[in-house]
Amino acid sequence: MQYLPNILFAIALIAGISFFAINIRKLFRNINLGKDVDRTDNKSQRWKNMIKIALGQSKMVRRPFSGFLHVIVYVGFIIINIEVLEIIIDGLFGTHRIFQGFLGDAFYGFLIGTFEILAALVFVAVILFWTRRNIANIKRFLSREMKGWPKTDGNLILYFEMVLMTLFLVMNATDVPFQQAGIGNPISQFIAPLFDSFSAESLHLIERTAWWIHILGILVFLNYLYYSKHLHILLAFPNTFYANLKPKGQFNNLEAVTNEVKLMMDPDADPYATPEPGTEEVVPEKFGASEVTDLNWVQLLNAYTCTECGRCTSACPANLTGKKLSPRKIMMDTRDRLEEVGRNIDENNGTFKDDGKQLLNDYIKPEELWACTSCNACVEECPVNIDPLSIIMDMRRYLVMEESAAPQELNMMMTNIENNGAPWQYNQQDRLNWAKEE
Amino acid sequence: MTVPTMAEMMAQGKQPEVLFWVGAAGSYDDRAKKISRAFVKILHAAKVDFAVLGTEESSTGDAAKRAGNEFLFQMQAMMNIELLNGYEVKKIVTCDPHSFNTLKNEYPELGGKYEVYHHTQFIQNLISEGRLNIDENTLQGKRVTFHDPCYLGRANEVYESPRDLIRRLGVNLTEMKRNKRTALCCGAGGAQMFKDAEAGDKEVNVLRTEDALETKPEIIATGCPYCNTMMTDGIKFKEKEAEVAVKDIAELIAEANNL
């Protein structure tokens, strides 16, 4: 029986990690529903971007206050997790504070002391985050798309962090030998007096309970990620690595279109020629995107990475002037639909069964897409290099090239370009008149 | 005003130093035509050997591409590329950041590889080569704010060339609260120029004009014919035409140098 806690711990650990792994496989599967796009070029620049933007948080701190708070939580999160390693070893082998013997009192004290200070700072930062989300009336947290689950999700994450930090400090405060040693308890020494009236047995019970809930809480939180916007803590890294490196103004040229245009303009092309053997059956490629599976895998990775901070939306000229377009909503819709498609595949033994829905219209409305000025403010703002504009453009392409559903004025503009090489109805022969005027 | 065309040049067996890509706005829009003429005056003053395509020039396809019509864009692109390559064009300058972006970034993959400059970059080079000086007395002390065109700024990260030229005018350059990387769009990009805005509570150009007016400018400088239209309309909407002028940097330089 003496090994019961170790066994229970091992079971919890394996269950927690396996369940997470199963979901991560689903996540990979869903991302791979996207079209292929080559992002293997320029590896050194990609590593640099990942180190600077994801690891170094360089775009976060462009907004100094929220950026600073985020850095605290981020650094705290990473460093405090060293402690989780000790907890796992202790849990599996029934040891207690195994690193203390290893590292020596002084260094161990320094480490745990640092964790405690960080835990306290994270706690304060998280309280401020909660205040910003719920009390401070910050516009980007009050947008239409932030009602309901997205708001709850944001708050749940903050509650999780508050509870985990509290448990970590309580666990240290009620560890009598640890407090007596007086090393590494810069914060918990002030919490310890709260438990002065407790007997040694109850203190031990509280310490064990806090220890168990803390580690179980971490495993639950790990599994919560998949269902939450909080996946960014993992996906920010691949997302910044695979992000577009070309100038932001450069939109991709559709290759399928290039082939057709070349054929159209080739004077030697024979429109009645018999297709080469084997090509007759090829379904012509769909132009643009009306569904998540028409997007490329980087765009889908973007959708899973988005943590709904709304910096994009707060910089979007269309959104700032009251239009329906919100780049954040574009990303949230893409993820929601992708998850729906993923569930559909799971429920139908690995194949997608038409559910009569698609990303366009059922999630994203043409009115949102047509409000975009393609100014790249959203792309520039995103702290993890998400590109909502590329999704907007792909969906416009579908509307125009597959459905001929552009606003009437744009159809006129395009007709003019076709007929006289300018967006307005002027004669091409008058194109140099400006030089003769004045 | 002498504006030689590539066809004329070719007939004389000459190859100009640079092609001036005028763009649809610069060719047809009454306000933007003034920018084209101001820039030509600068080219003449710096003795730049240039030519235009004239009646052979056609839309780059930028607006079609941003509207989602990739077919039309690529047809325009291929026609233009055939023409440009036929004339063996190596270097292009344009006053339109949209043409600049499309020619520079989107044409190469389709076979059109050129050295492309925005006119502010080109003028900057003329100055550093000693071919042009800007008179810093004419506009001395004027309060100027600069509106970053999205397709010059964020799209291609050209923030300094226009500012460098403005400073050389001897004016007092005051930045808007949203500038450079965080500059707000004028509302014309992404083919919005050619359609009414979706329902909202404000026009984008009015919001941007308010940003500019906060700096109490005498002149709002731009580097894009479409931004120019939007800001000019914004100033009219705010009934500030008497106090605030919207000018392209090329026009300011032509004015400063009395061209």
Automatic annotation (TrEMBL), chain A:
The chain crosses the membrane at residues 6-24, 68-89, 109-131, 152-171, 209-227. The keyword Lipid biosynthesis does not apply. It comes from the Bacteria. GO terms for cellular component: plasma membrane. GO terms for molecular function: 4 iron, 4 sulfur cluster binding; metal ion binding; oxidoreductase activity. Gene3D superfamilies: Alpha-helical ferredoxin, Transmembrane di-heme cytochromes, Chain C. Residues 297-328, 360-394 form the 4Fe-4S ferredoxin-type domain. PROSITE patterns: 4FE4S_FER_1 (PS00198), 4FE4S_FER_2 (PS51379). The keyword tRNA-binding does not apply. Keywords: 4Fe-4S, Iron, Iron-sulfur, Membrane, Metal-binding, Oxidoreductase, Transmembrane, Transmembrane helix. Pfam families: Fer4_9 (PF13187). PANTHER family: IRON-SULFUR-BINDING OXIDOREDUCTASE FADF-RELATED, IRON-SULFUR-BINDING OXIDOREDUCTASE FADF-RELATED-RELATED. This is (Fe-S)-binding protein.
Automatic annotation (TrEMBL), chain B:
Residues 28-103, 144-231 form the Cysteine-rich domain. GO terms for molecular function: 4 iron, 4 sulfur cluster binding; metal ion binding; oxidoreductase activity. Pfam families: CCG (PF02754). One of its GO terms (cellular component) is plasma membrane. The keyword NAD does not apply. Keywords: 4Fe-4S, Iron, Iron-sulfur, Metal-binding, Oxidoreductase. The keyword Oxidoreductase applies. This is (Fe-S)-binding protein. It comes from Polaribacter aestuariivivens.
